[in-house]
TrEMBL record:
One Pfam family hit: CheW
BP-aspect Gene Ontology terms: chemotaxis; signal transduction
Name this protein carries in UniProt: Chemotaxis protein CheW
Coiled-coil segments on the chain, per record: none
Amino acid sequence: MTGFYNNNLDVEQQIIHQELALDSYLKTLLEEMPTEESEVIMPSVPEIKASVPKMRVESKIKEKSETVAKMPALVELQLVPKPTMPLAVMPTWAQYEFQALFFRIGQLILATPLVELSRAIKFDKRITKIPGQPSWFIGLLEDQERKIGILDSGQLILGKGYANKRDLIEQPFKSMLITQDGNWGLACDELLSIGKVRPEQVRWRTNRKQRPWLIGTVIEELTAVIDVKQLTPRRKVKR
């Protein structure tokens, strides 16, 4: 009887330890994340003429970005809070077992549902750098006749302190996660795996007035689950 009691006590202590570790992890993650929202107006690149040859994917990562001198159109880029869902209401994909892509940014392991992504591509194409933009906006990528805004997802999640510690020329990203709408590419260091996640495996954040894109944490792996739709800014072209 004593042994059974001790076993139960050990299990309870492990659960308590895991919960404390999870709370500490989330607290640290939130403290490092940016708190300011920004609104900027950015010029876009001119349309590429048919005579210009399409760029081919190369094996080497480009070290420098192309700077555009004249850009007639304007794009309004806003990093503002998007409407959040009521308490205890989760996205449809979170209510059932879902497939998630696990990826790495620096030493941080993250996960996002596959339904929020269209594809993943290598970070080996030339990106058009737009002057006077937020440091988390890397530039525009012309791909499949679309302009994709490439974002420094590490900086969006961990804040400007992360940007100051990383030189994108010396430490370039390796991959880009393209959002379902095709408007944005989230730069990351490594694509790890695709796995199934059950709702009971995640500690959900039902009150997401702050950091609405941090939807929960996979308890066993201490992996943050990211809602990509809430992480990416709004983009509107002005004529």
